[in-house]
Amino acid sequence: MGRPRLIPACGAMLRRDLTVAWRRRSDIAMPVLYALIVTMLFPFALGPEDTLLQRIAGGIVLVTLLLAMLLTLDAMFSSDIEDGSLEQLVLSPQPLELLLGMKILAHWITTALPLIVITPLLAAMLHLPTAVIPVLLLALLLATPLISLFGAVLVALTAGTRRSGMLLALMLLPLCVPAVIFAAGAVAAAQQGLPWLAPISWLAAALVLAVVLAPLACAAALRIALDA
Amino acid sequence: MTVSIPHTPLLEARSVSFFRRDEAVFAPLDFDVHPGQLTLVEGDNGSGKTTLLRVLAGLLHVGAGELRWRGAPLRRSECAGEILFLGHQLGLKADLSPHENLRIAVGLHGQRAGTSIGSALIEVGLSGYESEPTRRLSAGQKKRAALARLLLLPATLWLLDEPYANLDRAGIALVNHVLKWHTDSGGAALVSSHGTTNFAGDTVRRIHLHE
Amino acid sequence: MSNWIPLWLHKLGSPPTFYRFAGTLQPWATTLALLLGAIALYGGLVLAPADYQQGDAYRIIYIHVPSAEMSMFIYAVMGVASFIALVWRIKLAEVVAMESAPIGAAFTFITLVTGSLWGKPMWGTWWTWDARLTSELVLLFLFLGVIGLYHAFEDRRQGARAAAFLAIIGIINVPIVHFSVNWWNTLHQGSTVNVLGQSKMSWDMLWPLLTMMLATKFYYAASLFRRVRTDLLALEGGKDWVRKIAEDEADR
User: Fold this and answer.
1) What is the tens place of the pLDDT at every residue in A44-81?
2) Mean model confidence pLDDT for chain C
């Protein structure tokens, strides 16, 4: 009989979350619509001057995506807790850290990736110069997984509580300050024609660290939250 | 009626208790669980049956006392996958079909030799519903899908919390049948139930929980 | 429990012992805090000379700097207590960590407000986005997050453990925030006090500051002892030693 090996188990986990997300496709569309609508509001609030919009476009896209992801984070574990499948995951003979890593990856694929796909559109709405868009995309590809990873740890901590989306925002957003700074820094540097590799490298380094540490922290947090 | 019992118990509890807000949820418990043995955990609502099973499963930490697994202090890394827990929430994703749910469970836990997802679903009477989303099944059918998971996974100790709830007479017979099949093949099970027992067979040991 | 914690520490960790210990020390800590605080204020606001550049405006440092130091000191205490609470599941450590959070939040808030009041005459702005200010703001959010998470749980001990975990995550995060904002921009003036090395302040300006730092420590101790004692009584409500205290109180 023997326990299954790690790779197929991770595959099963990833496939599970992706299939569930696919069956609820309309949920995937929500954050995308949210980001579009928020971005649409900025020109109306600030006036249609190209120079102003251009200057703040990178930051607006970044913060909008961060908030859109925040809205989806709350649901990361809630359905698994409600139907008892989280208990089954905790009790499976696989390392919980890896399974949670797969869950986080699935979350990133289903929420952040669609947002990144529409980013060129959002950037165009705010007249961001086309030459800067690749840098923005690169920064987002590194920053959004960081947010997914941080968020997963904090959502795991609130897993045992009553619904608390606001609390999650209070805890997560301060932790995201560095990610926002470096991602926005890279875009701003690219826009001014300065070298942008340094902030991107910092983001990449942070991502490597977070990929290793966040699933461990997430598993520990989840064990605390479930132990009652 | 005598049952031959191997010498090392599968699971031993030595004055195990659990505290919530510094109050013991159940009195310190001592019991052994041997392979091939069925143990019934009895008690009224609120007597701590679910808590006991969750402690044994490792979902809650042991408050005081010691748990031993195959004669040595229980370490979760060693018995992971050997203990299977089925609680009030069945652990089935509503958007997936029973077949998909079972395939994921097998992917995570492995598969018992000589079983297949198809035959397990037939055994619990869910043939024809394999690819129906679980959300469309009745409560009893969902329970049956969860029972199929027990049949498929290679665990030795089952911890079943109120498995008879939501089941009709045929369903209760099915639970008993599945339990008998498991103990006959060398497994053990702890089953919680409030009062009314539906057990067939007289080899059942009982643990009584009082408030 | 691990046996390499010294025995006395382990004994002190038992709620009834700590309850008595804190009860004995708390009045002393309160008295010292008030006394030293009064001396420091007199020294700082009356005796110390005016600054040749900043005039009397600099005197806000007698509140600002001790508060800032306390905000970090209390976060450190909370972090250490959190670590102990998570690793050894000691109830007292959970209580100390959770009861430190509101005190720390208060000091952080005072730091931000006084810093802002000081900033207006000095730099001509209430707020600037530099590393120290932003880190302090993030510290306030962390304190509030810890408090919020603690109260979000039905079970207080579970809430304490979850919040302790958040406190530890915060310890890693604050230096990263500081570093990243530094990278972003730096405006703040250099460090004012350096207790160990050569200080830039003259002694008659410095001693009230050091006294105030001591006073705030005693205030923290007194406040913490008070809060922890109340909390221990609530948490251990059903235990014999609490019942005995209640009976003694009733007899009086």
Assistant:
1) 998 888 888 888 899 999 999 999 999 888 888 888 88
2) 84
Per-position DSSP letters for B148-205, written without gaps between them: HHHHHS--SEEEEESTTTT--HHHHHHHHHHHHHHHHTT-EEEEEE-S-----SS-EE
Query: Which positions in chain B touch A89 (Cβ < 8 Å)?
Result: 108
Domain B11-208 CATH superfamily: P-loop containing nucleotide triphosphate hydrolases (3.40.50.300)
**Least CB-CB distance to B91: which of A2, A8, A83?**
A83
Chain B interface residues (partner C, CB cutoff 8 A): 20-23
Does B125 have pLDDT greater than 90? no
d(C-alpha C139, C-alpha C177), whole Å: 10
The mean-pLDDT minimum among A13-27, A109-123, B4-18, B171-185 falls in B4-18
Which residues of A, range 147-206, sit inside 8 Å of C by Cβ? 153-154, 157-158, 160-162, 164, 167, 170-171, 173-175, 177-178, 181-182, 185, 199, 202
pLDDT one-digit tens code per residue, C146-179: 999 999 888 888 899 999 999 999 888 888 887 7
CB contact under 8 A, C152 and A167: yes
Domain boundaries, chain B: 11-208
**What would the pLDDT profile of B52-68 be if each residue is shown by its tens digit?**
888 888 888 888 888 88
> Is the Cβ pair C236, B22 closer than 8 Å?
yes
Q: How far apart are CA C196 and CA A94, in angstroms?
A: 52
Query: Which chains are adjacent to chain C, needing at least 3 Cβ pairs under 8 Å?
Result: A, B
| Average confidence (pLDDT) over B182-189 | 87
Q: Which one, of B150, B160, B157, lies nearest residue B191 by Cα?
A: B160
